[in-house]
């Protein structure tokens, strides 16, 4: 039974609390938030996807800390789940690791690639299990895509396009471009990470982006450049659509012998077109959040430090995002390091 402490009672904090409460191999023993209204349960958030943040967990069943450092120091806490605002991720993650805790850090792993590097170095000096909440690596239909690409059952992937676009969440945090990193870091990051998860590291990126709601990049379109024989890959992400637009999450991947399409809004989100016929693919229940937490707890139980979204791996994702931002700012193709 893994004893869990959750820091940050926003949308993702509540989403994680609901998941832990439904499992038999863990128990939430402590929660922390600097906002008294959230800590008391008087203020509860909502998510942008149906099923998020149901607020089904009883906060009064856990010890409450206004100071995250007190939760990290709680001797009963074995796993610290960091769902605080992005600028605190690296600081809190490193403190938890140094206190001997396992760690789950909600995406992004840090505000900058340099912070991600320092955090990964802190993890390397421990024997703890640590993972980043890159939920798309676990999302039904997206984990299917990864397996389809790796298995080659439809031939090579020739082209791939991803889209994750929405109207603005309109919270204090997301209105602050310096803190959130704009949609580039807070939303589009999912697809940038999934591109490298599926296809490896691109040699360069060419991005176009705009700022509309914040001082950061609020809408971006990126071409990921691969070498000879590599796929043509693009991803669009943003939260600058007009209010009422809602949330869209899609991909279309064209293989040599079939085309796979995912649309979160469809009754059957995933389908494959092959030989003139479209076939809906049945998917497992749940969202990526449930599956990522299940994977982490399995790794902790097995003493397996290598997870599907490790701290060391996420340095590359952060470097990719920073290359995209540089391309947006300069209007030029930006090369990525091969090391």
Considering the chains and any ligands shown, give keywords for the structure:
alpha/beta, nine-stranded mixed β-sheet, six-stranded parallel β-sheet, 15 strands, 26% strand, globular
What can be said about this structure in brief?
This protein is α/β, with parallel strands linked by helices and 339 residues long. The protein contains twelve helices and 15 strands.
Task: Describe the protein's architecture and organization.
- The strands form two sheets. The chain has a nine-stranded mixed beta sheet.
- Helix 4 packs parallel to helix 5 and helix 10 crosses helix 12.
- The chain is an alpha/beta fold and 339 residues long.
- The radius of gyration is 20 Å and the shape is globular.
- Helix content is 33%, strand content 26%.
- The mean pLDDT is 95.
- The chain has twelve helices and 15 strands.
- A hairpin with a 3-residue loop joins strand 11 and strand 12.
Radius of gyration: 20 Å
What characterizes the major β-sheet?
Answer: 9 strands, mixed
Q: Can you write the helix and strand succession as a string?
A: EHEHEHEHEHEHEHHHHEEEEEEEHHE
Q: Label the structural class.
A: alpha/beta
Tally of helical runs:
12
> Helix coverage percent of residues?
25-40%
Q: Give the strand order of the largest sheet, numbering strands 1, 2, ... along the chain.
A: 14-13-12-11-7-10-9-8-15
Separation of the first and last Cα atoms:
39 Å
